[in-house]
Amino acid sequence: MTDTPRIDFNRPIPVGKELQYIAEAVQNGHISGDGPFTKKCSALLEKELGVHKVLLTTSCTHALDMSAILLDIRPGDEVVIPDFTFVSTVNAFVLRGARPVFIDVRADTLNLDESKLEALITPRTKAIVPVHYAGVGCEMDRILAVANQHGITIVEDNAHGLFGKYKGRYLGTFGALAAQSFHETKNFSSGEGGALLINDPVLAERAEIIREKGTNRSRFFRGQVDKYTWVDIGSSFLPSDILAAYLYGQLEQREKIQSHRRNIWHTYQAGLRDWADKHDVQLPTVPEYCEQSYHMFYMLMPNLDLRQKLIMYLRECGIYTVFHYLPLHLSDMGRGFGGRPGDCPVTEQVSDQLIRLPFHNILTGTDQEQVMEAILEFKF
Ligand SMILES: Cc1ncc(COP(=O)(O)O)c(C=O)c1O
What we know:
The protein has helices at residues 18-28, 36-49, 60-70, 87-94, 117-120, 140-150, 204-211, 217-221, 241-252, 254-279, 304-316, 332-336, 345-353, 365-376; strands at 53-57, 78-82, 99-103, 125-128, 153-157, 165-166, 169-170, 177-181, 194-198, 290-291, 298-300, 354-356. The chain is an alpha/beta fold.
């Protein structure tokens, strides 16, 4: 046992009026979905991001599931998905019968490698799903050009990237649809939660129906129909207003949260740059035209062995770090779709090398000093 205090990878803690708002939600007597706090969150995000419509969902996974339903994805369709991402990005489309086509990532930003995109497009390609890894924008100019040329829809998986920008434009506003996550590991959280950003107005009405179990209940509540009924497929993707109340408390503090996270990120970068250069460790790359969302700080160690040793050594120092995604094409499911070693070499390599440092909304300067001192003393 060590007597140094434990430094967690993540600590989901209220930073504003979250608990007060939960009490208000209960007092309002409307704790199911689409209550006052759900509306406040949607309005705030719509205004801030300039998005046509924002629907809160129970998770980013569910926002992606809704996207696949909205795009009428069906067996025989292909969807291009980065190999280095969470399973939900791909599951949403596979659930509708699509075949995933995995694209490797760039060695610098770990975002999908746009130079490989064109070669993967076929007449069956229905969607491209860029993931803005760590909240650093994908090369959207090139991705949009390929998508437009072939008439393919873009769904952004923006789980990490709320309030990040690519060339001055908010992430989540490039695709017809985008999915956000408010899971407890994200910058803004409601424990579990998400949102579907709808940039193509044509999809908005059906999205409400799909989120409301395939009924036109939202139109009924607005007085647009005199009874509501089953009109489409759908499920229960609408979060309780209690969760929205917590989320609103977080979103209200967005400047404070983002400025704290910006500070953490730059402190890590400045404190570890020389050490990283000396030991062949790669720190994150952020192109100058990308304003990142400050979602995480990761490092790429020279190899798997050193990555594992660093994780274990830091744990002995009371510091909790984690690795990230495994290559999807080499998972059991990915192999079932024909994935073989060597298909996505960059993902295969970075997946072994990546370590994420403690990063959360109440991480202190002292905690960070301790993390960095420990890293600088690590024996290669
Ligand atoms: C890129 C990406 N997409 C989707 C998800 C799923 O998010 P949620 O837990 O909100 O369903 C995650 C989870 O962290 C993720 O990293």
